[in-house]
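Quick start: read one record
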Amino acid sequence: MGRTKKNFMDFIPVCNPAYTWDADNKGKVTVHVVNRGLYNWIAQKIFKKPRISHISLDEYGSYVWRQMDGQRNVYEISKLVSAQFGKEAEPVVPRLVKYIQILYQNKFIGYVKQK
């Protein structure tokens, strides 16, 4: 039997529990990343790099981040983004897919099993 192809729109993204995050009163999300490991330790000691990096997301990224609850799939999130931002977010699907792929590659999110 061959492999069955999976549709990316059916993937259910979830925020990585290893990172903490918070939102300000305007809803903008900041993800807090603790820099661990030998290279980070050296950079902290020699180059005075911070132990915790704070990554601020823009308005669109913050909205998408808050929608990734482990229940909604990429398709459902795309519909919510369209409803929230309208024409400003166009083209929604390619932008959202690329954004989620970047978050996944940088280990900010993972995927849970499909429904």
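Strands lie at 12-15, 20-23, 29-34, 52-56, 109-112.
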